[in-house]
Inverse folding.
């Protein structure tokens, strides 16, 4: 094979591999992603990644379960949440959290250990304002 | 003094503008004195920034709450060490640290290149001055760290308790040093492009800076992981959080850059690739600084949380657009005459390693920004979690470790099959032995990716050992030195090569820890009463008794209250005690009761770990305060107006009550195999990088000799 042809073949193979990998990246990310929703958007019967703020004065314990309400970041609609598992250190009233689960009979039943709170380095600013 | 600090920033901004203008005018008009003046302006800038930083640091140390920043981020009861480091826990303070480091690094590189690179250096000065100018503009116009309060509060808010960890306080300067360090090769690359001097000169001048930046950035990432493991109370070291990803991306692309510049130095190839990589690294470093502070990825609607998000975004876009435009414009000058001779050569494998590293960075970039991408394409904000990241990065990491073993032993241009067989015979044999041993004596076969990783790690380590052995043996034949001496001199005389081998070995060891701890982790979350026992891994863990301590927690973070547990652990004949605690910091919320606010502020886990080379036993406790709720409400009612010492007695009584009538507490126990090797591997890699970056005495001697020879030549020609 002459060198020019060889280079062309290599280029085609490399580009093909790149396109294939990019397609895999896009496909897997869209199929594996979970949708983030606000309390005002969720309906029963499908699973969500619920985001919002913990309502003040709503945190209580019921045996091993943690109960609290999450409200829209910029609204008042809220939903009760029942959660079991590890509670991250930064979890507090008024903090922004993410939790995965499903709405069952008016209560958002969270998957075990799915509670996430914002990384601490980011809320140094809003702590003083609250 | 705050006025002096502000003045330093304003004068610094003007100095940076002057430095850029003077060096550009000097090089365009050929008047060298202006170039010299521009360079000296950068030294001035460094002095100004150091002065400003010292003023702010002093304000933190003496708890001067007339500074808004000190009142926000420190307090009189913050321990001394954390007062020093609280400066960069705030946004404004971290901008000041960034620009101070940038001015210092710029001064160092411009001083070192003052007699060389006469064409490129002035443009590099202008680029560095422009970047410094941007950060100074941010501080002068929007985020002045020297803002003062008309009415200083009596007490500051204190440093965020989660950040009160030694690793966390050293971690930001490490990361910033890394980010800033990469701006040096970036500036010289831009200078090289503008002047069409696209040879390897700019690489030789800044290679060491890139390596030092890489080392610091890597160390910073490791310290962040260590903090996550010991402070956040969840037991992991990497969670694919946007903030973590932000620091990893420039490190990956920077790693690719450090490898591919060797190809340009040796073979004059990959010029376009190299300038693209360093521009990408710098843009990602800016993005890293931006992501951590802006909160853009929680939600694009939270964009207003930071006052400087838009400015940062504009600057990053400007950097990307200008460098891409410049590279395209100079494309004809970046063509190399050399071609890839064979796919079985060192340069081909370096290119492959580059592609894998860049692919890794792209995957992480895509996943990190997926919420924004998804919102733009489908209108819905969706995100990808750690499982997605793990699935896509695992195969790439495996290929990377394999390449780390093959790449270094290949020769430039072309490798014959016979040579390959000869050089890889022993490592392949060692890998086969490792595979058999793993399958026969351990449970490693239960996780295929981990088994493959273990084998690749064995391969890399045996290659590195073989290389050291071959080199040392050759030296011993020639000189008759002892083995340790031969090894030391071999490494000392070929620092880049053997330092690089050490880095490869360190990274392989690190992945040994990652593979072991991710696939074979044993974790239990339980509620225990005193006397209860659980089994986790081979350990029997018994909750002996609760602890309650006021003031002076064991980790020295200044927490007023720490509640914890004493646990007896038994494994075979071995017994030991672990004491995890949880620190409670008081809240400043006036709506809370006078006593309960002491328990309602931040709380952080102080985990206790039994470190081990084979496995760690990791324990965290979360005391249940529900039983104290009644007494706390009662105390709030009765003692809200009592003097401080009475309140202290009440709190002591409450702690006593918790100790005497303990409710069940929640525990997380983790047996994490081989996790210690992550830190050991990281340390080996840093050591290797330092060996590679350290200037060798011979090189200095060569430089002095050549200068001497040049002077002699000049004298002779004059005579």
């Amino acid at each position: 094979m002459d060198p020019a042809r060889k280079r062309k073949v290599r280029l085609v193979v490399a580009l093909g591999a790149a396109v294939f990998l990019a397609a895999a990246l896009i496909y897997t990310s869209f199929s594996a992603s979970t949708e983030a929703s606000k309390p005002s958007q969720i309906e029963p019967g499908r699973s969500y990644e619920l985001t919002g703020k913990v309502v003040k004065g709503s945190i209580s314990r019921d045996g091993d379960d943690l109960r609290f309400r999450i409200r829209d970041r910029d609204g008042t609609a809220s939903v009760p949440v029942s959660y079991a598992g590890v509670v991250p250190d930064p979890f507090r009233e008024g903090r922004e959290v993410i939790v995965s689960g499903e709405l069952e009979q008016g209560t958002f039943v969270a998957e075990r250990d799915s509670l996430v709170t914002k990384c601490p380095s980011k809320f140094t600013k809003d702590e003083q304002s609250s | 003094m705050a006025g002096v600090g502000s003045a330093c920033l304003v004068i610094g901004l003007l100095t940076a503008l002057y430095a850029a203008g003077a060096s550009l005018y000097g090089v365009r008009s050929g008047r060298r004195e202006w170039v010299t003046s521009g360079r000296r302006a950068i030294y001035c800038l460094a002095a100004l920034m150091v002065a400003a930083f010292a003023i702010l640091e002093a304000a933190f140390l003496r708890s001067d709450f007339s500074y808004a920043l000190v009142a926000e981020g420190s307090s009189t009861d913050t321990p001394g060490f954390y007062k020093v480091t609280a400066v960069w826990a705030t946004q404004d303070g971290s901008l000041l640290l960034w620009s101070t480091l940038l001015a210092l690094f710029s001064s160092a590189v411009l001083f070192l290149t003052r007699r060389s690179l006469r064409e490129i250096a002035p443009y590099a000065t202008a680029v560095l001055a422009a970047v410094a100018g941007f950060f100074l503009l941010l501080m002068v116009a929007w985020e002045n760290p020297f803002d003062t309060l008309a009415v200083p509060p009596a007490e500051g808010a204190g440093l965020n308790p989660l950040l009160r960890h030694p690793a966390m306080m050293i971690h930001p300067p490490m990361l910033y040093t890394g980010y800033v360090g990469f701006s040096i090769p970036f500036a010289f690359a831009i200078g090289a492009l503008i002047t069409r001097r696209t040879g390897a000169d700019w690489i030789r001048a800044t290679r060491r800076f890139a390596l030092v930046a890489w080392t610091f950035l890597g160390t910073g990432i490791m310290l962040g992981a260590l903090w996550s493991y010991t402070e956040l109370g969840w037991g992991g070291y990497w969670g694919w959080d946007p903030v973590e990803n932000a620091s990893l991306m420039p490190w990956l692309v920077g790693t690719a850059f450090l490898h591919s510049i060797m190809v340009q130095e040796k073979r004059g190839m990959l010029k376009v690739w190299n300038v693209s990589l360093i521009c990408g690294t710098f843009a990602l470093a800016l993005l890293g600084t931006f992501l951590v502070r802006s909160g853009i990825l929680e939600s694009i609607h939270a964009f207003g949380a930071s006052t400087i998000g838009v400015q940062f975004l504009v600057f990053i876009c400007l950097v990307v657009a200008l460098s891409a435009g410049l590279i395209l414009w100079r494309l004809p000058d970046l063509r190399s005459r050399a071609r890839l001779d064979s796919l079985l050569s060192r340069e081909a494998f370096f290119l492959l390693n580059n592609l894998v590293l860049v692919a890794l960075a792209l995957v992480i970039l895509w996943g990190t920004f997926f919420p924004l991408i998804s919102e733009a394409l489908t209108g819905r904000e969706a995100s990808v979690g750690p499982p997605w990241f793990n699935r896509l990065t695992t195969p790439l990491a495996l290929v990377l470790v394999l390449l780390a073993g093959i790449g270094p032993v290949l020769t430039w241009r072309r490798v014959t099959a016979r040579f390959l067989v000869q050089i890889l015979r022993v490592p392949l044999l060692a890998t086969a032995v490792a595979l058999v041993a793993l399958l026969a004596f351990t449970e490693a076969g239960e996780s295929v990716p981990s088994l493959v990783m273990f084998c690749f790690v064995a391969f890399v380590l045996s290659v590195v050992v073989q290389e050291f052995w071959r080199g040392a043996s050759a030296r011993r034949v020639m000189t008759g030195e002892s083995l340790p001496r031969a090894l030391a001199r071999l490494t000392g005389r070929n620092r880049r090569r053997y330092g690089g081998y050490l880095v490869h070995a360190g990274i392989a060891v690190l992945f040994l820890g990652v593979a072991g701890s991710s696939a074979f982790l044993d974790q239990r979350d339980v509620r225990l009463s005193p006397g209860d026992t659980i089994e986790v891994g081979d350990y029997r863990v018994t909750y002996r008794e609760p602890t309650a301590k006021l003031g002076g927690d064991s980790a020295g973070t200044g927490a007023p209250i720490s509640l914890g547990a004493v646990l007896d652990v038994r494994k075979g004949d071995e017994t030991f005690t672990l004491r995890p605690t949880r620190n409670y910091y008081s809240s400043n919320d006036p709506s809370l009761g006078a006593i309960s606010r002491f328990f309602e502020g931040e709380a952080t886990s102080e985990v206790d770990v039994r470190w081990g080379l084979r496995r760690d036993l990791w324990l965290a406790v979360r005391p249940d305060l529900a039983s104290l709720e009644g007494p706390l409400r009662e105390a709030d009612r009765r003692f809200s107006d009592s003097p401080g010492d009475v309140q202290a007695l009440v709190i002591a009584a409450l702690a006593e009550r918790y100790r005497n009538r303990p409710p069940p507490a929640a525990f997380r126990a983790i047996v994490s195999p081989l996790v210690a090797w992550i830190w050991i591997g990281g340390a080996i890699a840093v050591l290797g990088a330092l060996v590679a970056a350290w200037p060798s005495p011979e090189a200095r001697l060569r430089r002095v000799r050549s200068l001497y020879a040049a002077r002699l030549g000049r004298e002779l020609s004059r005579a």
